[in-house]
Amino acid sequence: METIDKKLIDAHCQGSPTAFEQIVRRYGANILGYLKRMCGSRELAEDFFQETFKRVHEKAHTFRGENFKSWLYTIATRVAINGLRQHKRLKFISLNQKAEYPNIDCEEPNTAAIIDNSNNPSDRAVVDEQKEHVRQAVKSLPDRQRATLILAYYEQLTYPQVAQVMGCSVGTVKTQMYRALKTLAQKLGEFDREAK
Amino acid sequence: MKRHIKEKELIKYQFNLVSETRAEEISEHLKSCAACTKLAEQLKQKFSTLDLLREDISVPDELIKETLKQAESPAKTRIIPFRMPALISAVAAALFIGLALLISDSSVNKKQRPEIAKKPTASDYENRFVENEKITRNNVEYDSKESAARKLVYSRSGQKLAASDKIRKGVIPEKPPFAPASAIELVTLPRRENVQITIYNSADLTLVRERRNLTLKKGWNWLQFMWANTLIDPTSLVLEPLEQADKIDIKQLVFPARLKDIGRWLIRSETIGQVPFEITYFTSGLDWRAFYMGTLTEDERRMRLEGYVRVGNHSGEDYENAQTRLIVGEVHLLDKIAELARRQYPYNRPGWLLSDEKSESVVGDKLLEDESQELNGVLFDMELGMLKPKEIKKEGLSEYFLYTIEGRETIPQSWGKRLISFAADDIEVDSLYKYDEEHWGPRTIRFIAFANDKKHKLGDTPIPNGDVKIYGRAGEQDYLSYVGGTNVKYIPVDEEVELNLGTAREVIVEPVLMNFETDNFTFDSNNVITGWDEVRTWKINVTNTRQLPVDVEVTRGFETSYWTLDMDGQDVSYEKHDATHARFKTKLEPRSKRSFGYTVRTYHGKRQETGKI
């Protein structure tokens, strides 16, 4: 697997016109999903997605390691964290934003409803609400904790791989992960109590 | 464990954040503690809501297109604004102080100032450039406006642009540019136009000759060659122009520091445009082996022999449409190319470094992973190529023998390819059964014998060593049955060859000792025995249960070179095979038995001198 990545990167560095497109197609879905969870907004995730691959395109010749996936996630994480910081400073108002979710600069709530198999409108509403609550809980985490949680839980990277992406030790990753989980346990618990 | 487990630890346990020992302890505890199990379940349920955010995400084509477009657009210039007024104040103060010092310094007598080594500034470059321009002005006419513009550029980037300026005017600077550390201003190798590989099997050595068309600019060119994940010996790299050799000078090959598996050639070119080059290097990982299939006729007197060559590629590189040549013979090599290829920068002798098992696995096993994903197209080409058998042209080459496979072959990494080497019909063969206890124990061994000569419709070339499988035709429908297999050594022209097909079960040889006696004792003056004869009478029973007549050869050893032998009948003869062995040859009709006997007298002690030998 890694060899294919290396070959693609080498081919790209040697001027292959199709190699970079193959890289984008190979990892596009993973990176877009990761960025979407990181920033909670499809629109923003797509911007970061483009920025991530632009950096990969520019910096491909500097890739020396064995694990391309980790390298790619490292870039995506930096783009997302820096981008979100900047985004916090400059508040954008999306023209696509739904009027009924004024506080959420993010998601299309109806997408979730379509994915959900439940036909009962009331059940669907409950699931939507629950999902929104989880999204908000994840979004409320500090950047590094959120990145650690998403990489380890949703992207299913091992803790050493997450450490490689985050540029820290495995111990630090585990600490960040535990702190994220502790916060989530608290926030999800609050929601359960409110629901009851 | 009596105490309950805290929620904190249960969270860590569920997400593999505790040590293995602690995880086992918690697991044991949960088996016996209902309260903790309940708490763990609650936590599990709570965290299961995280899965609500899991969804299948696909990247729309528009986004990919936009991303590719964005990525290929030139990088924007980043403007970094000053955000700290304090910093601006500090810089302003420093500038003011600097200016004040400069004014006071200029008033001091220059002769009294100490000489200070300083880095040339942009204005120094500018002055130097003006001086150079004065010198070249006599020879080269140039536009004054252009000169002014150049001066401005030069003041920013120093000597480099002046060099390119000269090249533009047709003068190539004598001093080559420094090897670039980055990939900027490099020509990377374009695709191969043509490739020839010559595989020296005995030494795991392959000579690769590639032809590539390089586009050169006038002046100095850096050409980059990469060999990551291959077994190429970097020090064997040779680059030669195939045209305009008088205008192109290959100056050197450098291996830049800190860059693995990269070599850069410095080329001085007096021509512009595309020039064909030949790149030659040694690699390992390519091999070939010969193997043969023989099909015996029903009477086992004739055989069709087909020779094949299988070329394998584990070199880490795909060779498309390569002319493939195979060398038979031993090549003397000081170092193994595979070891040379694994050296680290700066590519000294392999003994200087530890063996790198990791790199070996990269080149060997790891590359196997991607074969199915990447090479489907090539496989298709291969299958088409296999439809028409290729001819292998053979010719002598010094101490070696060179086989050239007709046409061109694509040999992708991790793939092998089988090609027909030769096919000969109706080769006369001798089917022979041999019995020699000293070699094979009490078993009869089956042999097929023929010669690599014109009489046997062979003899054009030596036959390389390889595995042989012999099949027999049987029944009215000519069904094939496997008779036996062996490995043949290199067979030169006009040499005989015997193929050992293994133990024969249908032809049995049983020697039986019928009589043993000692005779003719000699004594010394003290009546001590000084010599004697041993007389043994043997009966050899040979049984042929096959439906074909067979030739049987029985070899008997006597452990001494002092022996005489008498046959008990006249129908079987023997010949002295060597000093200590006699060989008997006989023929047996289908499904028949035959016995012959002999008496051998061996001489011992003083009798060796006086007995009849």
Could you describe the 3D structure shown?
The complex is a heterodimer of chains A (196) and B (613). Chain A is an all-alpha fold and 196 residues long. Chain A is 74% helix and 0% strand. In chain A, helix 1 crosses helix 2 (19-39). The longest helix of chain A has 26 residues, at 170-195. Chain A is globular. Residues 91-118 of chain A have low confidence and may be disordered. Chain B folds into six domains: 7-46, no CATH class; 122-160, no CATH class; 187-283, no CATH class; 307-423, no CATH class; 425-503, no CATH class; 507-610, Chondroitinase Ac, Chain A, domain 3 (Sandwich). Helices cover 24% and strands 39% of the residues of chain B. Chain B has 14 helices and 27 strands. In chain B, strands 2, 3, 5, 8, 11, 12, 13 and 14 form an eight-stranded mixed β-sheet that branches. A six-stranded mixed β-sheet of chain B has the order 20-17-16-23-26-25. Chain B has a five-stranded mixed β-sheet with strand order 15-10-9-18-19, with no helix packed on it. At the A-B interface, helix 1, helix 2, helix 3, helix 5 and helix 6 of A face helix 1, helix 3 and helix 4 of B.
Topology of this protein?
The complex is a heterodimer of chains A (196) and B (613).
Chain A: H1 2-13, H2 19-39, H3 42-59, H4 68-89, H5 109-115, H6 121-139, H7 143-154, H8 159-166, H9 170-195
Helix pairs in contact in A: 1-2, 2-3, 2-4, 3-4, 4-8, 5-6, 6-9, 7-9, 8-9
Chain B: H1 7-14, H2 20-32, H3 34-48, H4 61-72, H5 85-107, H6 122-137, H7 144-157, H8 159-168, E1 187-188, E2 192-200, E3 205-216, E4 219-226, E5 238-241, E6 248-254, E7 262-269, E8 273-283, E9 286-296, E10 302-313, E11 319-328, H9 337-341, H10 357-363, H11 371-374, H12 376-386, E12 392-397, E13 400-405, E14 409-411, E15 416-428, E16 430-436, H13 437-440, E17 444-451, E18 466-474, E19 479-488, E20 496-503, E21 507-523, E22 529-544, E23 550-557, E24 563-567, E25 573-578, E26 581-588, E27 592-605, H14 607-610
Parallel strand pairs in B: 1-4, 2-11, 9-18, 16-23
Antiparallel strand pairs in B: 2-3, 3-8, 4-7, 5-8, 6-7, 9-10, 10-15, 11-13, 11-14, 12-13, 16-17, 17-20, 18-19, 21-22, 22-27, 23-26, 24-27, 25-26
Helix pairs in contact in B: 1-3, 2-3, 6-7, 7-8
